[in-house]
Amino acid sequence: MIDVINLQKSFGDVQVLKGIDVQIDKGDIMCIIGPSGSGKSTFLRCLNCMEDPTGGQIIFHGVDITDFKVNINIHRRKMGMVFQHFNLFNNKTVIQNIMLAPVFVQCQDLKNAKRTNARITFLNLFKKADKKQSLVPITTSKAQIKKEAHQNALSLLKRIGLEDKADVYPSTLSGGQKQRVAIIRALAMNPEVILFDEPTSALDPEMVGEVLDLMKALAKEGMTMIIVTHEMGFAREVANRVLFIDEGQILESGSPAEFFGNPKNPRLKEFLSKVL
């Protein structure tokens, strides 16, 4: 699904990523661990070009999304993102937060289709009958888009037991509730992969479990997930691959059993001795 080739990222004179090479397959649950400041979150943010890489390639479904000629927003539709601090819009209700992206994207597509049809209709005026171009089929409306997005948002809220919170504002939710809403907001776009940037690090310990349980459920359903995390138990239980990044490089990767049971890199051994 994603092929990362010699990925590099610098901020001024500081090189944060020093040539990352990794392949992410459909259905992978990849956990990324490492010390603070090692480049984990920068790597994650480069995957959907929230940070523009300085060098290298990110091939997503055969397209190099680091190419400035590529419309990255088209590809971001299939890459959900869950942030450490939730990033919900506090001036919108819970259900409005969930509906925002799908309604915006589909209404933009509808508007573009109508513009295309207007252009085709105009050009057809000057063409013979056998040369006229067919219009783009339009099978929905703005009202229908909003109705379906609302129904889908309610269904997602019901899944996490928060349907009664649909019309409240995020400021009234607990940290764990906010993060679960942030996860289903990403799901509302039907992504092929979800990127998680330390999704539990801003939560009180008692709220971590409810977020991890939702992520475990997604893993069982086959969702491709790339997770920067400090939760070693979660990585050991759920991941099928674990990466250790330090000083902008992947020093070791492998299955959880190999990674935690028989680490080979001296720096990884030192790191695990302090966190396990």
Shape: globular
Largest sheet: 6 strands, mixed
Instruction: Count the beta strands.
Output: 10
Radius of gyration over all CA atoms, rounded: 22 Å
Please mark out the parts with pLDDT under 50 across 5 or more consecutive residues, or reply none.
Answer: none
The spatial strand order of the largest sheet comes to: 6-7-8-3-9-10
Q: Percentage of helical residues?
A: 40-55%
Class by SSE composition: alpha/beta
* Mean pLDDT level: 95
How are helices and strands ordered from N to C?
EEEHEEHEHHHEHEHEEHH
The first-to-last residue Cα distance is: 32 Å
- Taken as a percent bin, the fraction of beta residues is 15-25%
**Helix count, DSSP H or I runs of 4 or more residues:** 9
Describe this structure in words.
- This protein has nine helices and ten strands.
- The protein has helices spanning 40-47, 72-76, 94-124, 142-159, 175-187, 205-220, 232-238, 256-261, 266-275, and strands spanning 2-11, 14-24, 29-33, 55-60, 63-64, 79-82, 193-197, 224-228, 241-246, 249-254.
- The chain has a six-stranded mixed sheet, sandwiched between helices. A four-stranded antiparallel sheet has the order 2-1-4-5, covered by helices on one side.
- The longest helix is centred in the middle third of the chain and has 31 residues, at 94-124.
Q: What would you say about this model in short?
A:
The protein is an alpha/beta fold and 276 residues long.
Features of the shown structure:
276 residues; four-stranded antiparallel sheet; 22% strand; alpha/beta
